[in-house]
Amino acid sequence: MHEQLQNIIENQLLTSLFQPIVGLGKNEIYAYEALIRGPSDSPLHNPINLFATAERFNETAAVEQVCRKVSIEQFSAQQLPCKLFLNVSPSILLDPEFKEGETLAILEKIGLHPSRIVIEITEHQATDNYVLMRDAVEYYRNMGFEIALDDLGAGYSGLRLWTELLPDYVKIDRHFIEDIDNDQVKLNFVRSLQSMATATNCRVIAEGVETEAEYLAVEALGIGFAQGYYFARPSAVAVTTIPLPLFVKNKVEKKSVAFKTTTYISEIMQQAKAISSQTSNNDVLSLFQKNSHLKVVPLVDEGIAKGLLYKDQFLTKLFASRFGVDLFGKKAVEMFIDTEPFNFDYQTVIEDVSQVLTDSNHNESAFIITEKGRYSGIGMVMDLLQLITTQQLQNAQHANPLTLLPGITPINKIIDSKLLEQNRFTIGYFDLDNFKPFNDIYGYEKGDIAIKLVAGLLSDYIEEDGGYLGHIGGDDFIVIFTSQNWENSCKKILSLFEQKVIHLYNKEHQLAGGMNAYDRKGAPCFYPILSLSIGIVAAEAIIKSQSHIEIADLATEAKHHAKKKPGNSYFINRRIPK
C-alpha cells in the first residue's frame, strides 16, 4: 500500500472531479468543488482509503499537495470561468511548507488569480490551536484567497471555528439538509445558521441537496448557495449549465397565477343548436347540406353533452367507402364519435381552459361549455386564443416596466369583478420603509434590486389556487389573496425579506443597522435597514365595499398603521365601511 501511495504521489496519478456549487439567487453555477479520486484500478481509488493510507504513512501533506496541483491544472484546462473550492485539512493549513506559497506558484504559472480560489477547510480532525489557525487564515486572505468551512455541524468544533475564523463561506453538513422539508428540528437549526451567517456577513452553502423538496426548503430559508446530486453529480468533465426547470418549475407555476385574469370562458360561448346522438346519419348529412356554414354540431341527450361532430370528419368517414351512405345512412350518428369532448363550466377562467387543452395535446377545434353540468353552448379554440392574446396585450400595456407585473388598472378591474360576484378575498398592500434615503445613497440600480426582491418574494408566495399580484407603482405592491392562508404567506415574506435585504448594504451599514442621511427638510437623520410594511384589508371588511376605490382607502389606512410599527410588520384592517 505504501508503494502504491508513493507511486501515486510521484507520478501524480490522481483525477479531479468537479461538482458545481449553484447560486440560488441568479440560478447559475457560482463555483466548483474539486473532489479527488485515485487510480480506478487501485484500492486507493476511494478518497477515504487514499487519505487514510496517507495519514497512516505520514504522507498527508504530499498527497494534498498533489491534489491541489492536479485540481488547479485540470480546472484551468477546462477553462471554467467560476471559482474553485480546494479542500485543505487544518494540519496542512498550519504546515510551514504550505505557507511557502506552493499553491500560489502553481496559480501564477497557469495564470489564475488567487481570488478565483477558495480554501475549503475540512475539519475531520480535532483543532484546538485557534490562534495559529486565525493567523494562517489571515495570511492566505492577504494573498487573495477566500476561506470556506466545510461540513458545519459534523466536525469537532465547527461553531467555535466559525466564530474564530469568520470564513467567507460555511457549508452545512448533508445530515442537516437530508429531509429538511419534513424535519422541523433540522429546519430550525439551519434557519439559525442562516441568521448567524447574515450577522457575520458569511455566505451559506447547503451541501447534499438531492431532491426538489430539499432544494425548495433551502431556497425558502434564504440560503444563497446549494450543492448536491439534485443539480449535478461530480464529473471529470465539469457540467457548465444547470437545466433551468430545476430552478423555475414551481416558480413559473406560481408566477403565472399572478397574471391570471378573471375572464371566464362564457365570454366566447356560442349558442350552438344541439342534436341527439341517436340522430340518423342521413338526417345529419341533410343538416350539413342545408347549412353550408355549419362546421361543428354538439350531440346532447337530455341535457348531457355526448360529443362534438365535425362536418369534415363526418363526411370523410361517411364517404370513405363506395356504399357508405347505403350502409350507414340509417344508423345513429354516435357511431362516428371516437372521444368524449372536453367540458368546462361557463365560469372557468380562460387561462385554466387553455392550460387543460395544452397539457392534453388537444387537437380539436371546439369544446363543450356547461352550466351546473348541463349543456349550455360550445367554445372555439381560435376564439379562446384570440381572447387570451388580446388580454396579454392589454396587460403588457398596463404592466410595470421594471417587474413586468400588472399595474393598477388590471388590478382594479379584478377587484371590481370579484366584488360584483361577491367572492371572498383579502387585500394586502405592500410598501417599503426608508426606501427614498436608500435609493438616494445607493443609487437607482440598487433601488431597483430592492424592488425586484419584493416582487420575487411576493410572486413566490402568491397562492397557487388563484392569488393575484400587481405592482402599482414605485415600491408599492397589491396582492389579492383568495386563500385563507394569507397570514402565513405574509409572515414568510416578511421573514425572508429581512434575511435577504441586509445583503444590499455595505458592511458598515450592516453593522450599524442602518445609515445616516438627510430627511426631506435637510436635517440629519438615521434610517434603519429597509423593511416591509403590509396593510391588510380583511375579507369581512371587503364584503361591504362597493368598488376598488373604497378598498384602496381601507388598504391605505391599514398600510399607514403598519408603517407606524418598527421594522417588518403588518396591520389588519377589519373596519367595515359605512
Protein model, in words:
With 578 residues, the chain is α/β, with parallel strands linked by helices. It has three domains: 2-246, EAL domain (TIM Barrel, Alpha-Beta Barrel); 265-386, CBS-domain (Roll); 399-573, Reverse transcriptase/Diguanylate cyclase domain (Alpha-Beta Plaits). The chain contains 24 helices and 20 strands. It has an eight-stranded mixed barrel, surrounded by five helices. Strand 11, helix 16 and strand 12 form a beta-alpha-beta unit. 35% of the residues are buried. The model is unreliable at 249-258 (pLDDT under 50).
Brief sketch in words of this structure:
With 578 residues, the chain is α/β, with parallel strands linked by helices. Helix content is 44%, strand content 21%. The longest helix has 18 residues.
CATH-derived architecture of the largest domain = Alpha-Beta Barrel
Q: Which percent bin holds the helix content?
A: 40-55%
CATH topology of the largest domain: TIM Barrel
Q: Which structural category fits the helices and strands? A: alpha/beta
Q: Indicate the CATH class of the largest domain.
A: Alpha Beta
What shape does the CA trace take?
A: flat
Number of strands: 20
Features:
CBS-domain, 3 domains, Alpha-Beta Plaits, TIM Barrel, alpha/beta, eight-stranded mixed β-barrel, 44% helix, five-stranded mixed beta sheet, flat
Q: Strands, helices and their partners?
A:
Blueprint: H1 2-11, E1 15-23, E2 28-37, H2 47-56, H3 60-77, E3 83-88, H4 90-93, H5 96-99, H6 102-110, E4 117-121, H7 130-143, E5 146-152, H8 158-165, E6 169-172, H9 174-177, H10 184-199, E7 203-207, H11 212-220, E8 225-227, H12 245-258, H13 281-290, E9 296-301, E10 304-310, H14 311-318, H15 324-328, E11 343-345, H16 350-359, E12 366-371, E13 374-380, H17 381-398, H18 408-421, E14 426-433, H19 435-442, H20 444-461, E15 468-473, E16 476-481, H21 486-501, H22 507-512, E17 514-518, E18 524-528, E19 531-537, H23 539-542, H24 548-563, E20 569-573
Parallel strand pairs: 2-3, 3-4, 4-5, 5-6, 6-7, 7-8, 11-12, 19-20
Antiparallel strand pairs: 1-2, 1-8, 9-10, 12-13, 14-16, 14-19, 15-16, 17-18
Helix pairs in contact: 3-6, 19-20, 20-21
